[in-house]
From TrEMBL:
UniProt cross-references to InterPro entries, sorted A to Z: Anti-sigma_ant, STAS_dom, STAS_dom_sf
Residue span, STAS domain: 38-137
Gene3D superfamilies: STAS domain (3.30.750.24)
Organism whose genome encodes this protein: Leptospira broomii serovar Hurstbridge str. 5399
Record's protein name: Anti-sigma factor antagonist
One MF annotation (Gene Ontology) recorded for this entry: anti-sigma factor antagonist activity
Length: 139
């Protein structure tokens, strides 16, 4: 049972379903990651039906005191406007608080193309690794 510095238990947090998985991803923690930062792994498809689960998980992390979300998207096959909206809502909430940020890393080529076409890359930092994503976010 792995716990994060802010006492978030993976058994409490993880969501594993065929269409969408949302997991704590401590194996991708870059060095120097503060306790207010967390790495999350998303798998499957982010669409109208699964985006709400992802939003609940992201907002739960913010409510628990996490300020920096690093999102591993290497196993995301598809993201639609609902999923993009979750990233925008999370970004907006962090901006309103005046601290923190959200970054994604290792997006598939299809997801990366969607991020580019929608210009979401201008709001959300995108790195190829968790270390690179953290460097883009770190204060």
């Amino acid at each position: 049972m792995a716990e994060t510095p802010l006492n978030l238990d993976s058994q409490e947090f993880d969501h594993d379903a065929p269409e969408l998985g949302v997991f704590l991803d401590p194996s991708n923690n870059p060095s120097g990651l503060p306790k207010e930062a967390i790495v999350i792994k998303i798998t499957g498809e982010i669409n109208l039906y699964s985006a709400q689960i992802m939003k609940e998980k992201f907002f739960h992390l913010l409510d628990r005191g996490f300020l920096y979300l690093l999102v591993n998207m290497e196993n995301v096959k598809y993201i639609d406007s609902s999923g993009l909206g979750v990233f925008m809502a999370t970004h907006s909430r962090l901006v309103k608080s005046g601290k923190g940020g959200i970054a994604v890393f290792a997006p598939s080529s299809q997801v990366n193309k969607i991020l580019e076409l929608t210009k979401l890359k201008s709001l959300i930092r995108v790195g190829s690794t968790s270390s690179e994503a953290w460097k883009l976010l770190s204060p």
